[in-house]
Amino acid sequence: MKIHFVYFLAALVLSSCASSPFGKKVSEPFSGSAYESNNRFFRASGKGESSSDNIARGKADIEAKTYLAGQVNTTMKQVADNYQGQTENERGADVAEKFQSLAREVMNTDLADIRKVGEKKFYDEKEKKYTIFVAYEIKKNAMFRFMKKQARINQKIDERQMAIIDQILDEQIKNSEGEN
Which residues of 129-143 are buried (b: 16+ CB within 10 A; e: fewer)? Predict the structure, then answer.
């Protein structure tokens, strides 16, 4: 009985030392909950590789900013869809479309209040290439306030629609500041 226990322990130790069938787990910079979006921030990170550090940085920037823009766009679509679902009338659809159009315009022009929260650069001598990681964040309430300003200068939005868009964005600002 004692010999079986020793064999069992040996097998257990050996199996725990074996590698995963997927390979070795890699931890990259700017990963984890501190770099994930939450109720206050949109966050994203990007990775770029190239033999030139400037090109690697550009690739990392583009990847991170594209991911941020996608998050903002998805959030705006959800907000507009929720509004349309709550109102259930043809004017609700019109306002939701104007709101989504406004979100697209904002995303095409600028990401408001974007901040770089980190950058790490690595050089692989063997491969002769740079790998750069960047992390960005946007305060949600700043993004929603920027959208309100953009809505005010948009000629396609009438006063009634503006009031509704203000109401929608004010609610999102309140939620992003943690006031419930």
Answer: bbbbbbbbbbbbbbb
Let me know: does 142 contact 106? Beta carbons within 8 Å. Answer: no
Which pTM does this prediction carry? Answer: 0.72
Q: Residues 83-104, buried b or exposed e (16+ Cβ, 10 A)? A: bbeeeeeeebeebbebbbebbe
Which two three-digit tokens encode residue 133?
């990681």
- Write out the two tokens for 176: 């992003």
What are 8-31's pLDDT values in tens digits?
555 545 455 555 677 888 788 998
Residue bearing tokens 């406004």: 102
Output the six-digit token pair for 51.
């033999």
C-alpha 23, offset from chain centre:
27
